[in-house]
Amino acid sequence: MVAKVVGTPNQIRSAYQDFLNFFQIAIENNNGIMFTPDRPLASCFVDSGAGSVEFKSCFYLRNLQCRRLKGGKRLDVVALGREELERSDPWRVKKSTVYLNYFTVADAKAQLVQSLHFDFDEKGQPEHPFFHLQLTHDLSPGPDRLSAKFDLELHPSPDHASECAVATRIPTPDMTLTSVLYCLAADHLRTDTFQEFAERVEPIQGRLPILSFDALKASVAKVPAHFKSSHWFAHTR
């Protein structure tokens, strides 16, 4: 069953669109290429029931700057974002998961060298930091990668790749989709290109859906001199 595309307020839709446009310009000004699905961004917002809307899209970033790579290789990244938005006033992010696959590419063959995802759920999850990063060995689903025009041969194949047996969860700040892309820009753009991107997206932040993290804020407020990991588990207490 195909999910029903729903209309979103112009403030929300245009915030995602403008941020992604500026991100793509920055990537391409840094000798990279950003591939996106052929469908319009508005069709990425679909009904998820109970007054919620899901945003989902995949992006393929080719030839990101990486000083550690030797000649003959390049760094590509596939980013897949899924965010559940509450139709409230103002709209807010209820859940967010952003998957990143890092590939080194040589001779048109891609090797998965790092896989991770960032998670947020406003209700919190048992034994999970409220905002967190998790290291994995998982590939983003094939149909999502293909939607972003990633068609490289994987070597070794997923069936023979090394398995990440330890799924470490690391507390993070808000790492919803735009935050993750912002950090990718910081990691893989020249300083001047990143600074220009940062200035362009600064006015957009106030138009993005808000997040609710009351337990975390209350925990930090009680002991503001200590910024410890226990704050990220305040929702479990």
What does this structure look like?
The protein is α+β, with helices and mostly antiparallel strands and 237 residues long. It has one domain (10-210). Helix content is 24%, strand content 32%. It has helices spanning 10-29, 142-147, 177-188, 191-201, 214-222; strands at 33-35, 45-49, 52-64, 74-86, 92-106, 109-121, 131-136, 153-154, 169-171, 210-211. Strands 1, 2, 3, 4, 5, 6, 7, 8, 9 and 10 form a ten-stranded mixed beta sheet that branches.
Keywords:
10 strands, alpha+beta, 5 helices, ten-stranded mixed beta sheet, 24% helix, 237 residues
Category from helices, strands and their pairing:
alpha+beta
The radius of gyration over CA amounts to 18 Å
What portion of the residues fall into strands of 2 or more residues?
25-35%
Instruction: Count the E strands.
Output: 10
Overall residue-averaged pLDDT value: 90
Query: What is the overall number of helices?
Result: 5
Task: Give a short summary of the structure.
Strands 1, 2, 3, 4, 5, 6, 7, 8, 9 and 10 form a ten-stranded mixed sheet that branches.
Lay out the secondary structure:
Layout: H1 10-29, E1 33-35, E2 45-49, E3 52-64, E4 74-86, E5 92-106, E6 109-121, E7 131-136, H2 142-147, E8 153-154, E9 169-171, H3 177-188, H4 191-201, E10 210-211, H5 214-222
Parallel strand pairs: 5-10, 6-8
Antiparallel strand pairs: 1-3, 2-3, 3-4, 4-5, 5-6, 6-7, 7-9
Helix pairs in contact: 1-3, 1-4
